[in-house]
Design brief:
Shape: rod-shaped
Radius of gyration: 44 Å
Number of helices: 11
Strand order of the largest sheet: 1-4
Length: 353
């Protein structure tokens, strides 16, 4: 049943304007025509769009809203007695032609004053269509985003009250979920901070171990087996632990790839990481041989040359330290910080909802 607006001002305006025309032109049976026009408006002149909906739906009533300061309710109007502008003109013409012979009704220009005063109320239609949908979803414990629940000054019906309760429950659940999500994001941010901090720490530890070893070898008084073992332990601890922390960065790269491409390629990222690790190990077997050949290392000699000894020292201490410093500089350009990862994860989660 469609909602309509009954515009009384339109009726009053047209009746008054027609009364003046009748008086000025001395229209035959003018008072009767004014009375007939008033009767037609009391019944209601339908807008064509409303009339089509009435005919298609075989409706005998229409709904209208009353939103006064003291009252707020819905009432029905009898649609069966209402006419369109054309129907109203034909009705008046049929009666007028029998009442006044040999006089054309068009002389009165009454057709210019048959303006529809029962118009479609699209806002009320939309509001109550949403309300009916909300009644169904509300009964199921669901409130959709953008749905109307209640308007200011609207009477609270049992169904609206139930919808408000559902909405309150959903707000409570969302608040709880939001709190848990915030704690999760905070924990993830702290974790990333620790990972990066520990990564720098242990790379620095490895560099310190290499520096210790270089100094112990260069200073004859410190060139003792136990001190060299300590330096080697410090160096190895830093490298081994830092290498392990590098794997903690892989999930972030996977999330970034999903954020930019829309595809989660965790297998490819892990495979590429493994390839570069193996490539590094392969270079670790080739480069030392090239350096030793360059400095003239000869395994058959009982005593190596000074250049060969320096070459060995550079392979063990200096070159790895330089590469670790390069790694620290590269990781300092790593842009996936905790706030960036939080934003990326939220965006991915929103896409997947």
């Amino acid at each position: 049943m469609p909602f309509v607006i009954e515009e009384r001002e339109i009726a009053e305006k047209n009746i008054e304007a027609f009364r003046k025309v009748v008086k000025e032109n001395n229209v035959v049976e003018g008072d009767w025509l004014v009375s007939m026009l008033s009767t037609i408006y009391n019944r209601g002149i339908l807008d064509n769009s409303v009339y089509e909906r009435v005919v298609q739906g075989d409706m005998d009533h229409l709904r209208t809203t009353h939103n006064d300061e003291a009252d707020n309710f819905i009432s029905s109007l009898p649609a069966s007695s209402m006419l369109t502008s054309r129907q109203a003109y034909l009705l008046i013409d049929s009666i007028y032609s029998t009442k006044v012979t040999k006089v054309d009704l068009s002389v009165s220009q009454i057709n210019n004053y048959l303006e529809p005063n029962v118009l479609p109320d699209k806002e009320a239609d939309e509001k109550f269509r949403n309300q009916e949908y909300l009644n169904v979803t509300g009964a199921q414990g669901i409130i959709k985003q953008g749905q109307r629940i209640v308007d200011r000054g609207e009477i609270i019906t049992p169904q609206i009250y139930k919808n408000l309760q559902v909405y309150e429950t959903m707000l409570s659940q969302n608040s709880s979920m939001s709190g848990s999500e915030n704690f999760y994001m905070l924990g993830q941010g702290v974790y990333i901070l620790i990972v990066l901090g520990m990564f720098y720490l242990f790379l620095g530890t490895a560099i310190v171990g290499m520096a210790m070893m270089y100094i112990f070898v260069q200073v004859e008084a410190l060139m003792r087996f136990d001190l060299l073992c300590i330096a080697q332990f410090v160096k190895s601890t830093g490298i081994i632990v830092a290498t392990g922390y590098m794997w903690a960065l892989v999930p972030e790269v996977v999330s970034f790839g999903e954020y930019t491409s829309g595809r989660r390629i965790a297998g490819i990222v892990n495979a590429l990481t493994g390839i570069f690790f193996k490539a590094g190990m392969a270079l670790g077997g080739v480069v030392p041989g090239m350096v030793l050949a360059f400095v003239g290392f000869n395994a058959e000699l009982p005593q190596q040359t000074a250049l060969a000894e320096q070459g060995i020292l550079w392979l063990v201490c200096v070159i790895p330290a330089i590469l670790l410093l390069l790694a620290i500089w590269i990781i300092s350009k790593y842009e996936l910080e905790d706030d960036v990862i939080d934003k990326i994860n939220k965006e991915i989660e929103a896409r997947n909802k």
